[in-house]
Amino acid sequence: MEHRALGRSGLWVSEVVYGNWLTHGETVDRATATACVRAALDAGITTFDTADVYALGAAEQVLGEALRGVRRDSVELATKVCLPTGDGPNDRGLSRKHVLESCHASLRRLGTDHIDLYQAHRFDPRTPLEETLVAFDDLVRAGKVRYVGVSEWTAAQIAEALALADEWGLARRIVSNQPQYNMLWRVIEPEVLPLCRREGIGQIVFQPLAQGVLTGKYQPGAAPPVGSRGAGFGRAPRFIGRVLGDAVLDRVQRLRPLADEAGVTMAQLAIAWTLATDGVSAAIIGATRPEQVTENAAAAGVRLTPDLLTEIDRTLGDLVDTDPTKTADMFAVKAEWARA
């Protein structure tokens, strides 16, 4: 496993991060979840990502239990706050009240005294930005949070937060952004990535496999394989259904010879592609089986040639979405995808 600095911060993270959205506490039983975490550790993964909203806290709890007995200083724990965790008006957002209360709840569920990377899960237009930044800063000064990041913020939102942090001399500037990013969904490239490169903010990207579509296991004109996320239950089919059109699946199948040429699986090709992007520090993988973790973790250290990267772009062509107005909309896809 290779490790990279998170932006220009002093925190190093594993190139492949293990995340548990839509799995732990939801579609994967605890024994399997623990086996997946152990497979991640065996593969050299040291960075684990979760959120208070995943399975309404159960994902954090399962992850904390799976890591019990692991030396705390040997791993980096990242979690998030913002999205609704209850029905009350203060059970969401980035108010001081919700940030502090959610942080303490996450610490209890994870079974730790500190969070290595605490992230604003989305931007909260209802709360003054200075209130949010001071709340995060207080957690850093209290030793409960080491570094601060955001997820799916626009370039303008990130820039405003950086300016306020500099003006007030806060203990920690934003060091990371967690956007959706893969071969098909590149909306951070026009605005977010250039800003973050200048400011030393590293990207920890999620959905590098586009919900499994880029693994090539979904065939155009065919039903999703039994046991796959596309054929699953709960919320998974709703998310992946947005990128299961035949036009996308046909083009993805054309990537298979490129993966063969590189000597990697389709999944490893997709993950390695994200890691080839300047400014990306790590890619988050999810899994429902330990063997998936092992396969995907092997993408760390894979270096794709410039010619291969160019051929991937040529193959996907106009299916690639780079519209920066969709930065914070993880479900928006090109109209032709929905019609396909």
Automatic annotation (TrEMBL):
Gene3D superfamilies: NADP-dependent oxidoreductase domain. The keyword DNA-binding does not apply. It comes from the Bacteria. Keywords: NADP, Oxidoreductase. InterPro entries: K_chnl_volt-dep_bsu_KCNAB-rel, NAD(P)_OxRdtase_dom_sf, NADP_OxRdtase_dom. Signal peptide: none annotated. CDD domains: Aldo_ket_red_shaker-like. One of its GO terms (cellular component) is cytosol. GO terms for molecular function: oxidoreductase activity. Residues 16-314 form the NADP-dependent oxidoreductase domain. Belongs to the shaker potassium channel beta subunit family. This is Predicted oxidoreductase. It comes from Asanoa ishikariensis.
